[in-house]
Amino acid sequence: MLSKLRLLLIAQILIMEIGCTRTPIEKPQEQKPINERIQTVEMKTLAEQATIPGLAIPSKHVTITAKSTSQVMKIHIHAGEYVSENSLLLDMDPSSAYAALARAKADVVAARTMAANAHRDYLRYKTLFDEGAVTRKEFENATRQNKTTKEASLASESNLQAARTELSYIHIKAPITGYIVNKNVQSGDFVQAGTPLLSIDGIGVEIRAMPGSNLFNHLSKTTPVIISINGTSFPGKIVEAVKSADPETHTHPVKISIPQNTGIHPGAYVSITFLTGMKKAILIPTQDIVRRMGLDGVFILNQDGKAYFHMVKVGLTQANETEITAGLTPGDILIESPNSLLENGQPVHAILSH
Q: What pTM does this model have?
């Protein structure tokens, strides 16, 4: 019994000694205020916009077809070659065209002769009819023959003009200035009328867009357009907008003209921004937005003089300002371009931005 009491007494003495030698808990040091510029969040006017992809296409595209059944005699160009308007492209076999021209000329001579003879008969029968020397039926036959041969003569003249036009198709020339994009025939090929021979893309470029119906309903030929490619932007102008939507995609074809010498070539993909109107929104400098733990946010100065991180939802960005669609309200005190060392809850010495 005495040994147990002795052990308890020793234990109490040890506990008291340990308690007397424990290191006192230090109070945490308060963070020092950091200098930061501030501004008041307010509503501003923002241009509403929508951005969709677009495709650069030739402003002119011409497919040259054979005007009649013929043979390709000589080709003066190759695919990809630059050609000027009226430059020679192809030579077609002229034999059939010259033969048709010769026939047309002979037909004109014959038709003119028949018409002249019929007109002389008409004048003679008219005189005889007035004198009562021929019957009305004979005079009417002469009148009808005169009219018929005159019409035939006019038709032969039209056929002669067509034959001369056909002859002009022997030497096929470029209707526009541009580049040969398709060459579908070779020298010696026989072609039927309507057969595609080659295609030319003009040197001008325009942009084709396919906006959905919701966006299309907000567009007009006066809607401001911005075309962007490889970090470069320039204005565009809507020149054509088709109201009928594609039944499958529910999109509308829209053509946009762009300035010349932009360096854009057919086939290039671009970004098209339509400025469809104006609205009121919260806009802040883009540099005021920071990412913490993978989240977009800003630092707000609270009434206690400390900075607190607020998550925000960003919208459109124009110039150096970004729209905030959630997370801020007008009147909030925003810290501008926050220091990278600024921590949540840190005291701030506020400097009013001018």
A: 0.56
